[in-house]
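Input record (Table S2, row 221):
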Amino acid sequence: MERDWNLFLAPYEQAVSELKIKLRGIRKQYREQSEHVPIEFVTGRVKPVESILAKAQLRHIPLDRLEEEMSDIAGLRIMCQFVEDIHQVVQILKNRRDIKVIQERDYISNNKASGYRSYHLVIEYPVELVGGEKIILAEIQIRTLAMNFWATIEHSLNYKYKGEFPQEMGERLQRAAEAAYLLDEEMSKIREEIQEAQKLFSHGRGSERDNYFQKNSGDQS
Ligand code: 0O2
Ligand code: 0O2
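Output record (0O2 complex):
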């Protein structure tokens, strides 16, 4: 019998919508407390049916085992400014009662051969449906802005070359991955200073900023 994909994907759509709101909520709370915000932005998507079918074929996953064996039908992505933020976000997620982390893949300490870096969590997440609770799998990818830049570009080139990069392109991507890594390293080294500046200019810290300018205005002579 033909699968009703709308029906199958409905809980995943709901999970992605809910998780986007919840994860963006974390960002908002940190911002309101005028603390360093470990989340820059959050995106989410439900895997298109075409991609589900292609991955199932590639990984030999029977279509009646998708719920158990394909963990990224619901996918969330959290972008951070600094590598240190990634570890903070992982801790925040592990402490939540509505999320159960069942798998961790650290492609930051161990980057993939392609040069890909990111921290992946596979979680169990309960969605409330009319017929009762359903626990689904979802994947959360956590990465810095630099890692995201590289992965986004490489992903679109992958579509073009179907994973078979010409040698020169492969080498350039490797070098770009190295450059992204170095960028993260450099940013981490000046993180404290950046965060201090961000605090000064964040919402609601006007008087602190004014004091800073008053204090420093004498240095200009
Ligand atoms: P903001 O902060 O006002 O921009 P939805 O889930 O419906 O809210 P949609 O259309 O599904 O949003 O978009 P998606 O793909 O889930 O997430 C897009 C969000 O990520 C948007 O934020 C974008 O502004 C943000 N975004 C995408 N790329 C970048 C980027 O390179 N830098 C930054 N800082 N943000 C990015 P919102 O929700 O519109 O809110
Ligand atoms: P999409 O939606 O096109 O991004 P699994 O089958 O899940 O058990 P897998 O697929 O090796 O094992 O899981 P992994 O590697 O933890 O996560 C796969 C996802 O990570 C990919 O999703 C990508 O989003 C991302 N990813 C992994 N390696 C690379 C890479 O070399 N380059 C880029 N750009 N992204 C990568 P999909 O399946 O491609 O789906």
